[in-house]
Amino acid sequence: MNQIVFITGASSGIGAACTKVFAQNGAKLILAARRYEKLQQVVELLSIDSSNVHLIELDVRNRAAVESAISSLPAEWSDIDILINNAGLSRGLDKLHEGAFEDWEEMIDTNIKGLLYMTRYIVPGMVQRARGHVINIGSIAGHQTYPSGNVYCGTKAAVKSISEGLKQDLLGTPVRVTSVDPGMVETEFSEVRFHGDTERAAKVYQGVTPLTPDDVADVIYYCATRPAHVNINEVILMPVDQASATLVNRK
Predict the structure, then answer these.
(1) Which portions of the chain are predicted below pLDDT 70?
(2) Which of 18, 107, 196, 221 is least surrounded, with the fewest CB atoms within 10 Å of its CB?
(3) pLDDT, tens digit, 9 for 90 and up, residues 105-138
(4) 3-state secondary structure (DSSP) of residue 227
(5) Does the keyword Cell membrane apply (predicted)?
């Protein structure tokens, strides 16, 4: 795979798993995350050749920072073939009328606006070069709202709509758009949602065999490597122990 892949939220979870699978298949990687030292750890752990990776400390919520990161890419890194909009998070599990404003804003700014900023600054180049693929990481939460999931589910429903809208807007160009929407994946997701409460986070996956980040990255890689005329619009994947956003079989 002689392509340049830009992955946001690459320091952990699905982003780090995508880094692994694309690196193993010879891609050149632009890795972005807020935690620069974690990005360095991922690269060291995977023994990625430094000539094949470009690291950026980036908070996708900051539009000026996104613009600067894209516009200041070295020439040899600027022709991005695949954008994986993976940066995203959930904060809190409160009833809407009891929710924390700062949690809402962090989810909306990261999951929706951050994804929009990345897309807006990268896709014009793809259209110009007549090649490219945008892969958005959605969620089962974008298809099915669950109790106390209100704003998070709303942000992932937005990702679904934005992916569909982008696909329509790019009709007539060779640029592809895919949304990969997982159910339960064991990452830092629940720990972040519960503001670092590891005990509460562990209970989410108790008695269940959830998806792993590698499972999701495998599907993302599959979508990215189809023939140029094939576009996989949307993939919903869940563990066998999960039937819907709320129906989970716990042993």
Answers:
(1) none
(2) 196
(3) 999 999 999 999 999 999 999 999 999 999 999 9
(4) coil
(5) no
Show the tokens assigned to 58. 């980036």
State the fold for domain 4-237. Answer: Rossmann fold (3.40.50)
Q: What is the pLDDT of residue 188?
A: 87
**What does the block give as tokens for 246?**
């709320």
Of 113, 110, 133, the closest CA to residue 189 belongs to: 110
Q: Which two tokens stand for residue 127?
A: 């259209």
Asked whether the beta carbons of 80 and 125 are under 8 A apart, the reply is yes
- What tokens appear for 1 in the block? 């795979």
Helix axes 150-169, 115-129, angle to 10 degrees: 10
Starting from the edge strand earliest in sequence, which strands make up the sheet with 82-85, in order?
53-57, 28-33, 4-8, 82-85, 133-137, 176-182, 234-237
Give CA–CA dist 169/179, Å, rounded: 15
